[in-house]
Write a structure and sequence with these properties.
Length: 120
C-alpha cells in the first residue's frame, strides 16, 4: 500500500519560514500527481499547491508568491517551502498523491496524517 508521511511543521512568528516534507513509499512515485492541502479549525479543507508528474505546478491564490512546491523523485519526497508566513496560514497541512490528476481538488486517493503549522 502507499504511505505518505509529512514532517517539518512547527511554530513560527509571522514573516518566518518553514519547509514541509512528505516522504512517499511505493513504486512509480515519479508518475504520481502530488498536492498539499491544509485545514484550519472550523474551516474547510483547502488546496494549497499541486505538482504534476512532469513538474508543472499550480498554487492557490492565498499562497501565490509565498509558497513553493517541489519534488525529488530520487528521494521519493515532496516538499512545500513556506515563506512570509502569516497567522492565517495556521493549519494542519496534508500531502496527497494519486496517479490521476486532481489539481487542487481533494479527490486524491492517498493522504498523509498531517503536520501542524502554527504562525503567531
Amino acid at each position: 500500500d502507499v504511505q505518505l508521511v509529512e514532517s517539518g511543521g512547527g511554530s513560527v512568528q509571522a514573516g518566518g519560514s518553514l519547509r514541509l516534507s512528505c516522504a512517499a513509499s511505493g513504486r512509480t512515485y515519479s508518475k504520481w500527481c502530488m498536492g498539499w492541502f491544509r485545514q484550519a479549525p472550523g474551516k474547510e479543507h483547502e488546496g494549497v499547491a499541486n505538482i504534476d508528474d512532469d513538474g508543472s505546478t499550480n498554487y492557490a491564490l492565498p499562497v501565490w508568491g509565498r509558497f513553493t512546491i517541489s519534488r525529488d523523485n530520487a528521494k521519493n519526497t515532496l516538499y512545500l517551502q513556506l515563506n512570509s508566513l502569516k497567522p492565517k496560514d495556521t493549519a494542519m497541512y496534508y500531502c496527497a498523491a494519486d496517479k490521476e490528476y486532481w489539481g487542487l481538488d481533494d479527490d486524491y486517493k492517498y493522504w498523509g496524517q498531517g503536520t501542524q503549522v502554527t504562525v503567531s
